[in-house]
Amino acid sequence: MTTLQFDLGRNTDSAAWRAITVFSSYRLFLAVMLFIVFYLRLPPEFLGETNPQLYTIISQFYVLTAVVLLLFTSKHWGLFESQVKIQLVLDIIVISLLVHASGGLKTGLGSLLLVVVVAGGVFIPGRIAVFIAAIATLAILFEAGYSQISGDGVTKYSHAGLLGATFFATALLAQSLSRKMQTSQQLAEQRAQDVTKLALLNERIISHMQTGVLVIDIEGNVTQSNQSARTLLNLIDTEDIYPLNHFVPQLAEQIWAWKQRQSASFIPFQTKADLPEVLARATELDNGEVLIYLDNTSATAQQVQQLKLASLGRLTASIAHEVRNPLGAISHAGEILAETYPGDPAISKLTDIILRHSGKVNGIIETILQMSRRKTVEPTVVVLAPWLAKFINEFCEIKHIPVGKVELHVTAALAQAYIDTEQLHQVISNLMENAWHFALKNGSSLPVQVTLATEGSEILLEVSDNGEGLSEHVQQHLFEPFYSQRTGGTGLGLYLARVLCQANGARLNYMADRTDRCCFRISLPLEWQESVQ
Known about the structure:
Elements: H1 14-39, H2 52-75, H3 80-102, H4 113-123, H5 127-149, H6 157-207, E1 212-216, E2 221-225, H7 227-232, E3 242-243, H8 244-247, H9 249-259, E4 278-284, E5 290-296, H10 298-322, H11 324-340, H12 345-372, E6 380-383, H13 384-399, E7 406-410, E8 416-419, H14 421-442, E9 448-455, E10 458-465, H15 472-476, H16 493-503, E11 507-510, E12 518-525
Parallel strand pairs: 7-9
Antiparallel strand pairs: 1-2, 1-5, 2-3, 4-5, 6-8, 9-10, 10-12, 11-12
Helix pairs in contact: 1-2, 2-3, 3-4, 3-5, 4-5, 4-6, 5-6, 10-12, 10-16, 11-12, 14-16
């Protein structure tokens, strides 16, 4: 079985140095007290009674030596083993001389050597500790022998022998107790290190979790949060402790409702339009605090949208057969009617209504069919900057847009996206058409601007124009199907664009906080992207 002792061969054992420093402090206190009691003639009066001059010299030397040794031990100077040996031997010599100057063993000062022997048993392992006890015993025997030779007529060998036996017994007992104490101390330190490592591991795991974690005290203040929670709730620049209802009132209201045991307390929400949708879960801790888990619903939304696309594939097959055939017959009948009565204004007006609305219904069917042509997402890695440059050139050529009317700004030249390029093409086309349509009304010299950048843990792709912007009422229904401000629009373009973005793990939002440009932003998470700026 391994015996635990201080590492005497090293001068870096902080626990051992702390212990010897405490003992050095005791030595200084003892030396000062022995000097003061003698100098002020306080009881007991036997101090220095036999040889006052020797006592004065030795006591002053002891005080100065104690100060120097305390400095050495506090600064960890020298080797620990050498320090212990020198100090203990010096203590035995000095105390023996003080005993001699005070009248010998009858004064009882020899018992002060017990502390030195105990220190030897604690600090020094094995036979060296017994050697310290032997030196102390020899010192006592020499004092007894000197007293006998000096002719005081009293034999003190029995007293010296009993004290020497006490020294040996004390040294052995101190060693045994020291081993047990050091074993307990090392075990406690090991447990403390394990707890510290476990706490650091938990902190690292929590900090790297994709799930956001918040701890809220009974007063509603956020006391702890991981990086994911701060990102999801846009709390990057907050203080260490802050009130939740001030920074995220939506979540604070849901937590209050949850505490009131209301049904459906937690529903998905967004702190900002360009941030992902978050769903909270809560549990109450024993100390009254509330632990909140925040889940990014993008992955769930992506799966839901893929299921929607698959369902639409089956639905549109029926629509194409059941609606387009009758619609084609109605449109053809209208054309024949217009050709039959070419000069009748009333007939021309009615046939124009028939043909115009038939075309609109056909456009709606075409858009729905586009949503179902790809049942599953087939993502590939694409470098966005050159892809966007090529797309803009093709778009301008098809739409007959003059050179320079669409500008591309790139700050992340090597940003790569893992996305279905055909669906991305469909989304960007829809946004560019809307931007060009509304920008033309404003007559700006630079109607459309496309921006590629990175921010935090996301790649941002923005399409903006200098149009009039959108009212708050329009923003509330912006991504709803069959809602459109464009004359002749189907109202499915933005809805389809958002559905395709969600199916690819991205987010499409209107940036309502932009005052200078009407801007739509596509946010691609960096977990799936690589960006080198």
